[in-house]
Specification:
The complex is a heterodimer. Chain A is an alpha/beta fold. Chain A is built from 10 helices and 12 strands. Chain A has 2 domains: 182 residues, Rossmann fold, CATH 3.40.50; 76 residues, no CATH class. In chain A, the strands form 3 sheets. A 6-stranded mixed beta sheet of chain A has the order 8-9-10-5-11-12, sandwiched between helices. In chain A, strands 4-3-6-7 form a 4-stranded antiparallel beta sheet, with helices on one face. In chain A, strands 1-2 form a two-stranded antiparallel sheet. In chain A, helix 3 runs parallel beside helix 6 and helix 5 crosses helix 6. By secondary structure, chain B is mainly α. Chain B has one domain. In chain B, 70% of the residues lie in helices and 0% in strands. The radius of gyration of chain B is 21 Å and the shape is globular. The chains are: A alpha/beta, B mainly alpha.
Amino acid sequence: MLDSQVTQTTADGRKIGGVMMEMKNITLRFGGVVAIKDISFDILEGEIRAIIGPNGAGKSSMLNVISGFYHPQDGEVWFHGEKRPAVKPYEVARQGIARTFQNIALFEGMTVLDNVMTGRLTQMKSGVFQQALWWGAAEREELENREICEKVIDFLEIQSIRKTPVARLPYGLKKRVELARALASEPKLLLLDEPMAGMNVEEKEDMSRFILDVNDEFGTTIALIEHDMGVVMDLSDRVVVMDYGRKIGDGTPEEVRNNQAVIDAYLGVSHD
Amino acid sequence: MPEQVIFGMEVFLNGLMAGVLYALVALGFVLIYKASGIFNYAQGVMALFAAMTLVGIMEGRVPFAHLINAILGTKIHHFGWHVNAVFGLILTMLIMLLLAVLVQKVIFKHLVNQEGIILFMATIGLAYFMEGMGDLMWGGDIKKLDVGLPQGINLWIDETTYNIFDYGFFIDNLDIYATVIAFILVLALIGFSQYTKQGRAMRAVADDHQAALSVGVSLNFIWIMVWTLAGFVALVAGIVWGTKSGVQFSLSLIALKALPVLMLGGFTSIPGAIVGGLIIGVGEKMFEFLVGPLIGGATENWFAYVLALLFLVFRPQGLFGEKIIERV
């Protein structure tokens, strides 16, 4: 385990700082089913942290705990050195934690641009009445936010589909739009639930490049769930391995790769 | 020009005006349905309640007067003051806002993730509750509502048409004002939902709850806002209809006329509500004028529903509704 207070620099020159998020002894139950059992790990500022494990290991549940969709029965979530009470998902979003979903949750009826603009909702300050009357700060704010969204759209190379309703897009592009919406909120922590699931090789390469670029250019901390081991090993700084709701490994990709428990549970066995 | 054609034009114009009034009620339904997926049976009663409250406040009536008198044995009915229309409108709007908060906190907050039919049932309960509450608060008598909207024949149109056709059209001033009000309301609503932060959040909630939460939208807040907007639309509809035909129980039944409008226009489209309203309005008036005499008249009572039935059979999503295509 890395010493959390030391600011370090990775081989490719990225800065990794102190602890941003810490999960302490998280236990999550659904009725009699224990989805997560006494798991602790931390996420450092600026790093790419992967959570891997076989199907049903509890990875998505863990991401849902971080983003406030689930509330663990036991354990504590610490964010920026403070214990976080049981908050609602929208409050988590307002604290600067953005996410994408495993099975894509976009606003299908809206255009790509509108979808990305919803990512700015947390950043817009003017109130209902100002907005309704379109007075004062409201208009300027809309333009500023629009500019940021256009930058994100450029960054993810989806300019050509800006005005297309999302429902018409193919799967791979939807995934990218969802990432754009999350990025538009300028998150401190970005949670990606299987960002590359169901993609072909080319799309996976694009997505990997985007994830690395986001981390590199904006210094965004990223926690991601992924099945593709090659991708995980290439992308992440550190990896948590889960199996049947338990943590069975935690460390750099190298360490995890050589961990016997991990090999037994996951790498050595095909789960496809 | 033959007399029949000139009559027809007058009927057509009156049909358009009536259609605008139907559209006004239908709008309230569309708003709530779009934003929360709830079909709000109580929309008509909300219009009645809003109109009653406005009259009550303007005339300085004591709310719950009958109840208070029955319990305390007093004989109070009026505060003895009159409130002007503007102030009365503001107060009524505040009460509708309060109502929205209550509806959300007491009912719909507890029904998140329930099926549409359950939410619909809840609005039926809400309708009966508000109907009783309105009577209890302000009494069940027929009230006269006058917020200063002009009524009676529009002389300018009468004269102009007389000069052209040798026959003056009868167009009610109130209908003209109602049309203008409806258009302003619709433009404002479209502007609000398309170009503001809260409008965007509202559309986001309507589209996907989970995704809306993940971008930091509070469902509770949006729903209160939506019910407030619906209350506002109900107030406008209540004022127009109340001025036209008096504030009385039958006002809540105008909601029934909104149903065929919605089936034509689609439940999810604001422009659809307008066009649907106009088609029904013009359709029933023209049908009565052209076909009515041949089959014994009184077609206005059923024309709208038969038209709606035809739409249900051949185009269930309405003219403008979103067709739901499921990818397999």
